[in-house]
Specification:
This protein is 41% helix and 10% strand. By secondary structure, the chain is α/β, with parallel strands linked by helices. Strands 6-5-4-7-1-8 form a 6-stranded mixed β-sheet. Strands 2-3 form a two-stranded antiparallel ribbon. The termini are far apart.
Length: 352
């Protein structure tokens, strides 16, 4: 095993995707997260704020590039095409924005694992693994060097995509929870194996399970809907996921050895909030920015099904459609609601 020379201090960045700052501070201080706690105790911390934080989408792009939304233009995962009512998917990978490690010299060795929403792995010394165990992967898993993906899959299996399920039963929640806990463990093992080969100048590893788990299990964290016994294993599901990630971070630091410079970063936090989609639409209707599509002559099977099927079933059906198909349906609906001659958007046109 080759190690970096004595006295060298690599930069190590650990990411909690949507790691809530209150939890990181509270659980780091009370011993629940000993790795995070030891880093906080020996260093300093700050909580980011401001207009850049209005949406989670695009946050990782800004964090790893240093460019604001005003420059990179990524505000949401589905954005308007300029001068039209068409909607197009937006991803960090589509932008001409480079993460900071692209600017490092050729002598710098990298170990970059699952940093969300960034450009494809680049040909630089060391290794990069992308989209293997992220919150919501949009692209196939990729590595540099390219042959590394085969090693990863042979040792740890193919990537396991674990989606949120808002209407899940308790049994389904338990299954998702156990899958997430197992994936945290497997990812930690993978990182330690990859980091055992050589010394690195930059190690950047992000865990996305606290993002998926935060959305999925927040209801048990804030309002179990019954006694702790009824919530059972899920009562501390959010905390347990943070603890599992914290443990893997500690083991990675043990594997690296030495005295690295360590940063812990989070993209956004979480909080309970009533759904506002219906309210937003009502306000847009009242102000004239949105209108109900007028009935069209003839029979439209898609519109008829949309009216007849309950939302839960429509959500399940949408999961079997491709992203392009779902985006097309949503764009059609949006265009019908916002037709320029009936709203404040006169002059805009739709080009297809």
């Amino acid at each position: 095993m080759t190690r970096k020379p004595a006295g060298s201090s690599p930069l190590v960045v650990f990411g909690f995707d949507a790691g809530d700052p209150r939890f990181l501070r509270q659980w780091g201080a009370d011993g629940t997260l000993p790795t995070v706690g030891s880093i906080l105790e020996r260093g300093c911390w700050a909580r980011t704020s401001g207009p850049e934080m209005f949406c989670e989408h695009g946050m990782w792009v800004s964090l790893v590039s240093g460019e604001s939304r005003a420059k990179h233009g990524y505000h949401y995962f589905r954005q308007l095409v300029p001068r039209t009512y068409d909607l197009a998917p937006a991803r960090g990978r589509f932008l001409d924005v480079q993460p900071f490690w692209r600017r490092l010299g050729k002598e710098q060795r990298l170990a970059v694992v699952d940093v969300p929403d960034v450009a494809s792995p680049s040909p630089q010394p060391g290794f990069q693994l992308s989209e293997w165990a992220t919150h919501y992967p949009y692209f196939p898993a990729e590595t540099y060097p390219p042959e590394l993906i085969q090693k990863v899959e042979e040792s740890f299996g193919p990537r396991r995509v674990i989606h949120e399920k808002p209407d899940a039963t308790k049994d389904e929640d338990l299954d998702i929870y156990r899958q997430l806990m197992d994936r945290v463990r497997r990812k930690g093992e993978l990182c330690r194996e990859l980091l055992s080969d050589d010394g690195f100048d930059l190690v950047f590893v992000v865990f996305g399970e606290c993002h998926t788990g935060g959305h999925q299990f927040w209801k048990y964290q804030t309002s179990p809907g019954g006694s702790a016994r009824e919530a059972g294993e899920l009562t501390d599901a959010v905390k347990n996921l943070y603890q599992a990630i914290d443990r893997e971070l500690g083991l990675v630091l043990e594997e690296l050895g030495g005295d690295p410079n360590v940063f812990v970063v989070s993209s956004v936090g979480l909080k309970p909030q009533w759904p506002a989609q219906g309210l937003n639409e009502a306000v847009c209707h009242r102000l004239g920015y949105q209108h109900s599509p007028e009935a069209q002559p003839g029979f439209n099977p898609v519109h008829t099904l949309r009216r007849l099927l309950p939302q839960s079933l429509r959500d399940r059906l949408s999961q079997v459609l491709s992203r392009a198909a779902r985006a097309g349906l949503f764009s059609d609906t949006f265009e019908a609601w916002g037709e320029g001659s009936r709203t404040g958007g006169a002059g805009a046109s739709s080009r297809r």
